[in-house]
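User: Run a structure prediction on this.
Assistant: Running it now.
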Amino acid sequence: MGTRPRSAWEVRQRLQRAGAAAGVVTATLTRLTRLGLVDDAAFAAWWIEQRDRHAPRGRAALESELRAKRVAPAAIETALRSTADPNLGRAAGEEDRALAALDRHLRGRPLPDDPRALQRLGMFLVRRGFDPATARSVLRRRGADA
């Protein structure tokens, strides 16, 4: 198992913490970028793919996590748009992501009937970065499947 990709900001922070001079940090980042080893757009796409696979998050949470890693807004938007459905104007997989997050959370248990428990599940999805409409839609859809 290797190390995960890093954003340019993360590499810069690591080099600075190691005590590298400012000129060395800049030269190193320039070279790594030229070699394709540091690429914020590729990092953003990788981050979204990993989240979808292991811990599904909504668009808002993904944007927030990538902004925290100082990925450029244009790179974030491009990576998110690569999963977008142009006919809907929103992420095509947003409901699929929410369903995956809900299924992981429930771990095979049935959807509860208690309104308070359903409300807590909805809030769980909202905390994961899904908008309330998507959370309601997913809970209704999952309830219809049961």
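Helices lie at 8-17, 22-34, 40-54, 59-68, 73-81, 94-106, 115-127, 132-145.
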